[in-house]
Amino acid sequence: MDSALSGLQPKPNPRTSENRSSKLDIEWNITKFVIEQEGNFLARFEPAADMAYVETCVKALL
Q: Which of 16, 22, 57, 58 has the most C-beta neighbours closer than 10 Å?
């Protein structure tokens, strides 16, 4: 993970994480992913994630 993102980990979504059959489920067109320029996965945000937190993550990469 990029050093700019150290300490920035998406928080689990308590509304959905316990109720899912698999934690790998992706809600169609809603789950957000942060992918770096090289195509490597950096973070995953569930639909209920605070957009301010997502914004902080993205700004750290700019």
A: 57
